[in-house]
Amino acid sequence: MSVLPLVALVGNPNAGKSALFNALTGARQKLGNYPGVTVERKAGRLALADGRPVELVDLPGTYSLNAASPDEQVTRDVVMGRQAGERRPDALVIVVDASNLDNHLRFALELIALGLPTIVALNMVDLATRDGLELDAAVLARELGVPVIATVAVRKRGLDHLREELGGLLDSAAPEAKTLPPERDFDAVRGEARRIARAAVVRETPSRRLTAAVDRVALHPVFGLLLLLGLLFVMFQAVYAWSEAPIAMIEGLAEAAATAARDALPDGMLRSFLVDGVINGVGSVVVFLPQILILFFFILMLEATGYMVRAAFLMDGIMAKVGLSGRAFIPLLSSFACAIPGIMATRTIADPKDRLTTILIAPLMTCSARLPVYAVIIGAFIPARDVLPGVGLQGFVLFCLYVAGIIGAMLVALILRMTVTKGASGGFLMEMPKYQWPRPQDILLGLWQRAVIFLKRAGTIIFTSTVILWVLLSYPKPPEGSAVSQVDYSIAGRIAGGLNVILEPIGFNRDISLALIPAMAAREVAVSALATVYSIDAGDDEALLERSLGDRLKDQWPLPTALAFLAWFIFAPQCISTIAVTRRETNGWKWPMFMLGYLFVLAYVAAGLTFWTATALGLS
Amino acid sequence: MRLTELPLRQPAFVDLIDWSVLSPSEGQRLREFGLCEGASVEALHHGGLWGKGPIACKVGRMTIAMRRNHAAAVTVRTGPDAAP
Ligand SMILES: Nc1nc2c(ncn2[C@@H]2O[C@H](COP(=O)(O)OP(=O)(O)OP(=O)(O)O)[C@@H](O)[C@H]2O)c(=O)[nH]1
Ligand SMILES: [Mg+2]
């Protein structure tokens, strides 16, 4: 098979490269209305107008070929053909934002000067129109000397035209491309860009600018902060308020399945495996799908509207105080979803020490995998009543747990920046995108993707860990008539018994020790592990089997233990995937091991302090 | 007048930038944002409770955020004959 022609999408951050990539290839790359969404090269396949296949690559956005951060280096290396193991693209599609041509054309001119066959996609013409700006693509094409095609990537407008031009471009003999960017005076290129941008304007009618109006509130020193806090607050209230009905439904289904399995199967290992391990174990995690989706709904909305950079702006004062760059706030906010994309997103941070610090504190942001753990304990121990009209206590406690993680992260950053990652304090230089209304189909697609990912996790890693735990809990069997319980007699029970020596001082019991080890695979496993332990413990006791995991916990754990468990999970040593991605992003084992160590110590101390304080206060 | 002192929403032009205050990569990023001698700027928002937070300003058609110490390196002029 012959090699496919290779075409790269390049341009400024947030120009709509990934949106165009998705529209052309049918891929589902992540989009977001802030600079720095894409941080690595992604390839896909596109069919030209005549059906010929072409390999298309989506690249991180950058302002010039003078790369400042690791993500921008990828773009530079791919475009210049210096990426190890990759050939140089045969053609470029430069994506420019029609509503910000002055700026985007400067980089476009730099790229055109490379001499590769090039097309310019004049994207976001709808936004330019919204701002009262009308442009002439023909003038642009003449001035730039390359084809210019008006597109609206998110509405799939202009794509056929783009495919057609691309076909023609690949057919014509390729000119000799330059291996070094031609030396040109930066200011001269900018001047030319501005001249061309002006020449292309057909009409400009001043219009009411939505963005400026919203920002007067959103960036206001007082109201802006109140708005941000309010948003987060509503988010955690919603996690409880909106999820009751769907959770009850899933619980009902799981219960029905367990009953059916119990009735249909004879008592024995198979039944125990299905009921204790699969339905009660994995089911106890799947129950949290609605809450996780509600959390993601808010995160997706923040990302799509353009609010992310505003949040970073508001938080910059604190970030500056602890020696981080304001931009680091965005990877940290993404870590609420999961630390892995958060750690990847630190590639947009130019300063290496700044970036390392951000990586090291990312696991302190409460990821969505911890939500089930929090939710199960809160559900069991925190009464579902309102502290204020409309403000539920459970949502409030959840909010506090997240805030505790953030405060912990800031304190750790402060200490790290004074010790192991000492260096010049980072700055905050960021472009602020215009606000956009999120498109419902984008949000729904995002939620759907998250649901699939979560269920896949439940079906693979959570399932496997739970099954392994079930085996280790079920064997060996205690001798007939023995007073030792099944769980205590099993392999897992004995291991937990050993571990408990270390964990007992901070109020943890055998069951928690049992749950913590498999929770390294995925944090939700802490919940499924507890469910499996209690399910096996219950044996055939009908009354016990009827009780939910939350009720069982409430029966068996004193309140100080439950609080200590929550405190542990604020800092809990992160999952194995996080360690692996940290190793990759820091090129070695040193930093992931450091991270694991300091988080373990913090978790231990936090859980211990919580337990001792709660005990001293006589809480129970 | 420094960019930090420029009243909000008053159009101005960049007179001078003290590049020595900025690290080479920060200086480069500012240039890439189009902030250079002669560029039109407009301060839009001051962040932070005690006026110590970052500044959002309009440069050409783009809105950018930067910290005060960087904005203080930018001298601007206003008035009818400020345009270069
Ligand atoms: N109105 C409008 N919005 C668009 C268009 N193309 C993309 N967008 C939106 O603009 C934002 C940025 O799009 P992306 O495709 O993520 O931008 P990108 O160039 O890949 O950005 P980076 O990966 O950060 O470099 C997203 O919110 C998109 O939904 C368009 O043609 N019109
Ligand atoms: Mg992208």
Automatic annotation (TrEMBL), chain B:
Domain Ferrous iron transporter FeoA-like: 1-78
InterPro entries: Fe-transptr_FeoA-like, FeoA_core_dom, Transcriptional_repressor_C
Molecular function terms from GO: transition metal ion binding
Gene3D superfamilies listed in its UniProt record: 2.30.30.90
One Pfam family named in its UniProt record: FeoA
Assigned keywords, A-Z: Iron
Name listed for the protein in its UniProt record: Ferrous iron transport protein A
